[in-house]
Amino acid sequence: MPGGLLTDLYELNMAASYLRRDMDGSATFSLYVRGLPKSRGFLVAAGLEPCLDLLESFSFTDDDLEALGEMGFDDRALADFSALRFTGDVWAVPEGRVVYSEEPLLEVTAPVAVAQVVETMLLNQITLHTTMASKAARYVLAAEGRQLVDFSFRRTHGVEAAMAVARASALVGFAATSNVEAARRYDLTVAGTMAHSFVEAFPTEGEAFRAFAEDHPQRTTFLVDTYDTLGGVRAAIATVRELGLDGALGVRLDSGDLDALARSARTVLDDAGLREARIFASGGLDELEVHELVSAGAPVDAFGIGTQMGVSADAPYVDSVYKLVEYDDRPVMKLSSAKVSPPGRKQVWRRSGGEHADVLSLRDERGPIGSEALLGQVMLAGRRTTPASSIEECRRRFGVDLAYVPQKARRLSHPEHVVVAHSEALLALTDRTRDEALRRSGAGR
Amino acid sequence: MPGGLLTDLYELNMAASYLRRDMDGSATFSLYVRGLPKSRGFLVAAGLEPCLDLLESFSFTDDDLEALGEMGFDDRALADFSALRFTGDVWAVPEGRVVYSEEPLLEVTAPVAVAQVVETMLLNQITLHTTMASKAARYVLAAEGRQLVDFSFRRTHGVEAAMAVARASALVGFAATSNVEAARRYDLTVAGTMAHSFVEAFPTEGEAFRAFAEDHPQRTTFLVDTYDTLGGVRAAIATVRELGLDGALGVRLDSGDLDALARSARTVLDDAGLREARIFASGGLDELEVHELVSAGAPVDAFGIGTQMGVSADAPYVDSVYKLVEYDDRPVMKLSSAKVSPPGRKQVWRRSGGEHADVLSLRDERGPIGSEALLGQVMLAGRRTTPASSIEECRRRFGVDLAYVPQKARRLSHPEHVVVAHSEALLALTDRTRDEALRRSGAGR
To answer: Could you write out the DSSP letters of every residue in B104-135?
Structure first.
């Protein structure tokens, strides 16, 4: 996927002008989230890997150039585009780290034309993956250690989104996914049982269970709510008894009052001496419902999580931006709205081993004593400088960071935002740049 | 994309059992939306084309089979999978038609194993496209004839979703998209101007505008709010005057009080004698904000619509289901929850030339006099029976249908749902099948 056309037209308009005018000054764009959704106290950085893949392979094919010619770009523009590659540097926060609003997830420094053209895709991919990882993290908080499985494929915004959700949820600690292609692609544990239609295709529920257990003796979790849930549990018990598979029994509840049904099912299973049998709950659960079941002590061992996570239903996007902060060694900022974007290349400093209280600084500043830098260089002159992180590494990073997210930001309901301090040098540069921008805006007319 | 692994594991578990047991009975699955989101009074059918593409090419590659072997499927299952193709029939509602809850968008009749395996992808694609077309339709209602342009690429859930949004919005009447690849792929009008970063990369706003207009004399819409909006409008006027491009001026407002700024900009433009100059508004607008601007008479000629549409922010999914309604000539239904899915193959009848009052019937029934059938056969024995609809055809269909959506369902705020009547024959079959299912659920233990 060379990707030259995976962009908005205005990016190409601007790039054509820059290239034509030999404006090859180095531009730094900072990609960050401007303010968190109301129901988010923190975000989980994700999506860096697809971005780096895109940047390494960025170019226009002959077909791309032909299409652009038909859209009105002249020969000079097409010639300029055909030579365009991503030759810049990238600094980024590693995937799996907790970030707050205003903290750059990614900073790109490159000749302005190519730095501009990649905006659309960088925003698209970071937004998708970060939105999903941040949503999945809320289920991890809600489940308090109970297992979570991604069931979202059927309702995500396409196949690509389904892959992103499977990966993002694994990254924050989900145990498995139902998504077979994602399991192959990212080497995840795959999980799945049966649907109601399977039970309905057999003359009786008992016959359906028996057939399934005979065919998949390693996957003896039965969906028990097609006709009558507790009747289904009894049919499941009879099936594993008959086939000598008592050791591996699981039952899945997908409808009704999950708390009450889980308790009743637990009693029926325990009374049958099947204390090891697992109870699995699914059915459109959001993280607050998971938390309610867990808090109430419902005997649910694992949750299947679908649509609500797969589209990040309560907050389906984050307010991500890609702002020019420096051009040709000159810090820049936009004036006209209330949303100020501080100028200059940045770094984020995080106190080690304590509750997060981050400082946003200029990149070349030293951080406070006892703090670590969140952004590191990941690409130099268009080439990766570090190998891709494994999902396990990301998950470890997330685990460490999550322990230090302030309690007020971890809350599932009405979390408070963590305010990031600005360093003295950044504040001073912001003031100077604002004055300069005001001067320019006056001088322009 | 043969697509065999683009599914949930449980679909493959069930298929393996069916194939092993020679259960090749014909199954009919009905894909419909169970209840509309609160803010939707109607839906726009979309996503059929990618579904038919998928069904025609459905198979497992050698790599797929190897991966499935590693996931625990035995040689018998792999041999069965390797021979699996979609050989069934499909009936569907054409893209662009208005549909209501309970009305099948798609019905698949095929040997049960393959009909089951394709569930995940059919739901995924129909849900994505229908969600997006239905959201875009609300902007069309809100804009009351003003032009709409899709600007959502940067915030959609991936590239595939961006393409779906561009296509779905074109299908209901958007005039253009900023998405260059979508414009190429679907032959849409592409549109775009410049970003704030372009203005900032030049010493002054005036110089940026001049450069842009010189380089793109056919695209002289200027983003005027980088420093001071009305100052920007004046700079834009000076630029087109200087270059003799007065005829084509446009200004884009992307922040601030759009109503007040549009009026002020209109006055400045009119005072300069530029009554033909167009005003373009963007900036995270939802359909209610568009409607408010239009109702208030703000002089906005066109709207750029981004994130709120691109993720269908107020309703990022619809409650789509894929229910087994018939197996081996036997109507089936699930009992245990309140959500009853009526059995049997269906048809939807719509009164011609009047406000919609649809009837859901069995497929072979005759419809009421003066009504037309919504579902038609689109695939026979695994092959398309009709050519794909063009976007123009879909748009025409939508335009005709929209005129007859009851007013209460068209409302942007608190729309009421249209209740679909069930035919006598369907009601009778539902009763008989419920009794039969009760009998089976008792008999099973």
So the answer is: -SEEEEEEHHHHHHTHHHHHHHHHHHHHHHHH
Contact A192 B445 (CB under 8 A): no
> Would the pLDDT of A344 be above 50?
yes
Cα angle at A227 between A225 and A230, to 5 degrees?
A: 55
Question: What residues in A contact B194, CB-CB < 8 Å?
Answer: 10, 13-14
Cβ distance A287 to A306 under 8 Å?
Answer: no
The tens digit of pLDDT for each residue in A66-75 reads 999 999 999 9
Report the DSSP beta bridge partners of residue A28. A109, A326
Rounded CA gap, B227 and B198, in Å?
12
CATH class assigned to A9-132+315-443:
alpha beta
Q: Is the pLDDT of residue A148 over 60?
A: yes
Instruction: Identify the pLDDT of residue B3.
Output: 80
Q: Name which CATH class applies to B133-310.
A: alpha beta
pTM score: 0.97
The end-to-end CA distance of chain B, in Å, is 44
- Rounded-to-integer distance, Cα B242 and Cα B320, Å: 56
The ipTM assigned to this model is: 0.96
- CA of A201 vs chain B CAs: smallest distance (Å): 6
Interface of B with A in 402-441 (CB under 8 A): 437-438, 440-441
Segments making up each domain of chain B, as ranges:
9-132+315-443, 133-310
Cβ of residue B197 closer than 8 Å to a chain A Cβ: yes
A246-295 pLDDT, tens digit each = 778 999 999 999 999 999 999 999 999 999 999 999 999 999 999 999 99
